[in-house]
Prior knowledge:
The chain is of the alpha/beta class and about 400 residues long. Helix content is about 40%, strand content about 15%.
Amino acid sequence: MIKRNIGFSNLTAGYLFPEVARRRREYVALHPNAKIISLGIGNTTEPLSKHIAAAMSNYALSLATPEGYSGYGDEQGNSVLRAKIASVFYPGLAEEDEIFISDGAKCDIARIQTLFGSKVNVALQDPAYPVYVDGSVVIGAAGKNTGNGYKGITYLPCTPENDFFPELSKVKKNSLIYFCSPNNPTGATATKNQLQTLVDFAISNGCIIIYDAAYSAFIRDESLPKTIFEVQGAKKCAIEVNSFSKPAGFTGVRLGWSVVPKELKFADGASVNRDWNRVMTTLFNGASNIAQAGGIAALDEQGLLDMKAQVDFYLENGRLIKETLEGENFKKAGVVSYFTGNGPYVWAKFPGKKSWEIFDLILDECNVVTTPGSGFGPSGESFVRFSSFGHRSDVQEACKRLSELQL
Ligand code: PLP
């Protein structure tokens, strides 16, 4: 018999959202007439831009013609899209052959872990998008589960006390550091100085940063960096992942990209860009050509305007939720909420309560689904995350119910 992958025997990965769904199902089974509203997961709700959808539709139809048909494309992605991403998001900061098109940021994060294997030290923001931990567990890099995190992972608390920017001195030399900005779930968006501190630390300590910029399109504060490559030295120590999922509503269409600089090297001097190219050509066979046609349309003048409008819509939802959480009922209970206006999440602390307790209370009393903060890491305990992805009428109704909640 073949032994089970050691990673899987340690796995609590994928616990958070299935458990949220299980509790929701259990509640609905007991209360079949409840009108549940989800402010839980970060799934987009608004229809695609017509302009972007038409580009995909036209491309799909052209595939049914002899002139328009194409099969496998380059594994690294359509060169027009790569060049467009370079010029729109990284002018003067990255070149076309440093940009690799993918089927999404989550998939890239998982594949990136194959570059580093099971012996790599891992450090990450706590709380953080669960895939960084879960992917490290699967690959065997996380060590034993202590019940309050994994032994082999260095958790870097990001809390209101440190303004959501971690103390880096605990990070071991030669670590892979996962860093997400704007952050899921806290919404915290690093300043240029903070990113410079992170980059300087990584260079001095032989670390590589996996910078998750999946929410960069939500940044509205012009002074905040939208890519880590705005910071000096970042090309020597960082990989950036990004996605069309949230700004273009491509959560189902699937399209993302990674930037792997040519200056980035392993300890033996080998090029990370070259190895990433091999990972993509070996473990991946290119993003859907229809999705890539949508990506190209998303980056022309009309597409950029449409994406901005979608992001603005979700940011307005976020503002409504934040306003509700500042109501008297929450204030009296000492609830403090954080919404930066640069990301789609509202992060709220309920002092003296456990995250799952708050989740159950809000589900019971308001029929609103949230996400318990403890699922994002030990420092998320006592918090819940409210997602601003929702139809306006649902968000307004959820806010009305929340404003009547007795805490
Ligand atoms: N990175 C972060 C921080 C996310 O929150 C998400 C999705 O919620 C992703 C990546 C996944 O992006 P994609 O849909 O491109 O796989």
